[in-house]
Write a structure and sequence with these properties.
The protein is α/β, with parallel strands linked by helices. Helix content is 31%, strand content 23%. The longest helix is centred in the middle third of the chain and has 18 residues.
Length: 463
């Protein structure tokens, strides 16, 4: 077994910052020690002087090869997980989709087939329930036992993913009994469809209208509704991609009442806004995602929610579509623009920039990007921390290097960057996945198929 010694760096976890050497053997972290206090020898020594040594990121919300609007997300599990590694993320949790009229097992098998033998880093699955019935409710128990412990339901996308309140309540009741966690996409999709129809009838067809019809109040209303349904069911709740200050307020109120309610936001809501959706020509299509980008004043509430722990996780909702040939499907009709942004490679760097800018501190960076998603989805302490016994998913991070984000240099399989030209401080230098180098001195040295499927336990915040 290869022994690796990472020496001279500042080890940062969600709870600690300490100058320590890290010893890795057999894919696990075996020890930490004060530099100079040990006589460890190793086959490989990584000098992390003046660098941070941090856990690999856990991105708990990605959509590789996801079908949407007649096309497929442009990143495969191979390209998407390699891009994740370049960005310092060593575990993704992607969404398997139950086919309408089919079983949860069918959906899970299809996603295993997409990912098996292709991934550069480790991966796990959530399950999207698009057909809640007696059969699929029973299947939830089997999936929890098999390590797929979270289930996503939608109050949006009528005719595709939408579940009514009764179906959501039934799924929550089942989760309350089997230990699962229900995740919700909270927007009032029926009301949004009315506003879409009315906007198109008025001739409002440009990308910016995507944000105008998906109103913040309709995100807040759906967030309030699913919170109360979870309260009736006695089940925990995780609300995905929170973008509106009114929705943050609903989560904060519920948490103040002591309810087991959790929320994530995404870098696009922290760093982009409706100004991007309104870019001239058809450029705004690059920024069409749901929930939509909000006016810039919403960002302050999101940052505050991350500092006060009313929001616990930053994931990407990585769901890329190329501008040419995919986003262009919606030229002349914003409602036909595939919803989704690329971001799996950018998350860790953007959140480090938030440290530089004073929005969060270093430990909170690691909390929201590594430890909290690992705890939320039953992966901790195998993932999300640097401690003896944890998987050796480790990033050596240069906090002083500067880079400019660009489609010309990123590794995501998409023809634009949502952060084109943005200058950030901090860069991933070396990435180990279970002790094996994937990125070394800013060079790719890994391989497709190294990544393993990871069955998950249940949410560690509720049990």
């Amino acid at each position: 077994m290869t022994r690796t010694l990472i020496t001279g760096g500042l080890v940062i976890t969600a709870s600690d910052e300490l100058h320590a050497d890290v010893l890795v053997e057999g894919g696990r972290i075996v020890a930490l020690a004060t530099p100079g206090s040990h006589g460890w020898t190793a086959d490989r020594v990584i000098d992390a002087t003046q660098k941070y040594v941090i856990p690999g990121g856990v991105d708990a919300h990605t959509h590789m090869e996801m079908p949407f609007g007649g096309t497929l997300a442009s990143d495969t599990f191979e390209t998407g997980t390699l891009a994740a590694a370049w960005g310092g993320t060593t575990t993704i949790v992607d969404f398997a989709i139950q086919p309408r009229g089919g079983s949860l097992a069918e959906g899970l098998d299809a996603w295993h087939e997409k990912a098996d033998g292709k991934c550069a880093v480790d991966y796990a699955f959530h399950m999207i329930m698009s057909d809640v019935n007696e059969s699929s409710l029973k299947e939830m128990d089997a999936l929890v036992s098999a390590g797929v412990t979270s289930f996503k339901l939608f109050t949006a996308y009528p005719g595709v993913f939408l579940s009514d309140d009764g179906q959501i309540l039934r799924a929550m009741q089942r989760a309350a009994s089997n230990g699962g966690l229900v995740m919700t996409h909270a927007e009032n999709g029926l009301a949004i469809d009315v506003l879409v129809e009315q906007a198109l009838a008025r001739g409002e067809r440009d990308p910016r209208y995507h944000g105008e019809v998906r109103k913040a109040l309709l995100e807040a209303e759906a967030t309030h509704r699913v919170i109360r349904l979870s309260q009736v069911a006695g089940a925990p709740l995780y609300v995905v991609h929170v973008s509106a200050q009114e929705a943050v307020a609903e989560l904060a109120r519920a948490r103040d009442e002591g309810l087991p309610v959790f929320g994530e936001t995404c870098p696009q809501y922290l760093f982009l806004s409706t100004d991007n959706l309104a870019e001239p020509g058809f450029e705004g299509a690059k920024y069409v995602c749901s929930t939509p980008l909000r006016p810039v004043e919403h960002q302050a509430a999101l940052w505050r929610g991350l500092r006060t722990n009313d929001l616990q996780v930053v994931s990407t909702d990585h769901c890329p579509f190329c501008f040419e040939g995919q986003k262009e499907l919606g030229r002349g009709d914003f409602s036909k623009i595939p919803n989704g942004l690329p971001g799996v490679e950018n998350r860790m760097d953007l959140l480090h920039q938030a440290v530089v800018d004073g929005h969060i501190d270093r430990r909170r960076w690691i909390e929201i990007a590594c430890a909290a998603p690992a705890r939320m989805f039953g992966l901790y302490p195998k993932k999300g921390t640097i401690a003896p016994g944890a998987d050796a998913d480790i990033v050596v991070y240069d906090p002083h290097a500067e880079q400019v984000m660009s489609a010309r240099t990123h590794h995501m399989n998409v023809d634009y960057s949502a952060y084109e030209g943005r200058r950030v401080t901090g860069r991933v230098e070396t990435v180990l996945s279970r002790g094996v180098p994937v990125i070394e001195d800013c060079r790719h040295v890994g391989r497709a198929g190294h990544g393993c499927y990871v069955p998950r336990g249940i949410c560690q915040y509720t049990n």
